[in-house]
Design brief:
single chain, alpha/beta, binds adenosine-5'-triphosphate, 4-stranded antiparallel β-sheet, 279 residues, Rossmann fold, globular, 6-stranded mixed β-sheet, binds magnesium ion
Length: 279
């Protein structure tokens, strides 16, 4: 059986069906006439294992709320999130903890995710203690392997986070996530704060992790150039709704919704810089 046919019959790692998240305004806002915010409105998509699923859309379109709902950080008003075929709302105790460990978040600002008072060695060792307690005796090896996995030299182990560049810090964040042995990385604007060459390094690292280890990646970005560089499939969100979702190459070759066409007129940074064909 080829990999492709195996993929077709395997259930998706993540599956959302008609997921909505509503925010009610506070008392003062209600008095001023604010009404319910439908941040995510009947969103459905499947994320296949070992693929990168891009979520694009302008600010406020509901991208972060969607992934926060996946992780149980926002209450879902209606709909279901299935992880590995199991309704997340039914997971309790140990099974819920395992799901939380298997889906690791990477945010825009790496410095806020790294304790500034700890050297990189200690940051990584802490994570081994929490998520790999049974192997704690091997922590030096696990810590060194984690740095190798993200292409950082061992000399960086003795540095503090502020002694690394933004791109290097983001790679430490990814190393921390990898120690937890995730099946999926959920990246929310993970390269948006980086310069173009650091962006490319982090994106290439994520592509390698997908290809070499079969990691599944959900990648939120407002930059269509980045989305194209990283995604196998893309969902375009607007005002809480998915207006278009298809394989990335189809979206770029033949955008169907007017909104996607508008997004595509935004400047594509990476494609030009890294020798992509014009979008
Ligand atoms: N806790 C909250 N309470 C009330 N409204 C919220 C809350 N969180 C988000 N919203 C609203 O939900 C909508 C979607 O927000 P969300 O943060 O998901 O957008 P986004 O696509 O991630 O935007 P950005 O690109 O700026 O990060 C916005 O209108 C936002 O103001
Ligand atoms: Mg956001």
């Amino acid at each position: 059986m080829t990999a492709e046919t195996a993929n077709d019959i395997e259930p998706p790692l993540l599956s959302l069906r008609s997921v909505s998240v509503d925010f009610s305004p506070g008392a003062l806002a209600r008095m001023l006439g604010a009404s319910l915010v439908k941040a995510v409105d009947e969103v459905s998509f499947d994320v296949r294992a070992g693929r990168t699923f891009g979520i694009v859309g302008e600010s406020g379109s509901g991208k972060s709320t969607t992934v926060r709902a996946i992780l149980g950080l926002e209450s879902i008003s209606s709909g279901t999130v299935r992880y590995n075929g199991v309704d997340m709302s039914t997971l309790r105790g140990r099974r819920r903890k395992i799901a939380a460990r298997e889906m690791q978040m990477v945010f825009q600002d790496p410095s806020s995710a790294l304790n500034p008072k700890l050297r990189i060695r200690h940051l990584l060792a802490e994570r081994v203690k929490i998520h790999r307690s049974g192997e704690y005796g091997n922590r030096t090896t696990i810590v060194r392997n984690a740095l190798d996995d993200v292409g950082l030299p061992h000399t960086h182990l003795d540095r503090f986070p502020h002694q690394l560049s933004g791109g290097q810090q983001q790679r430490v964040v990814i190393a921390l996530a990898l120690i937890s042995r995730p099946r999926a990385l959920i990246c929310d604007e993970a390269v948006s704060g980086l310069d173009v060459s650091s962006q490319a390094q982090v994106l290439n690292l994520l592509n390698d992790l997908r290809d070499d280890r079969g990691l599944t990646i959900i990648f939120i970005t407002h930059d269509m150039g980045v989305a194209r560089y990283i995604s196998d499939d893309i969902a375009v969100m607007r005002k809480g709704v998915i207006v278009e979702q298809r394989p990335a190459e189809e979206i770029f070759a033949d955008p169907r919704s007017d909104y996607t066409k508008t997004l595509l007129t935004a400047v594509p940074t990476l494609p030009r810089t890294y020798g992509f064909t014009e979008v």
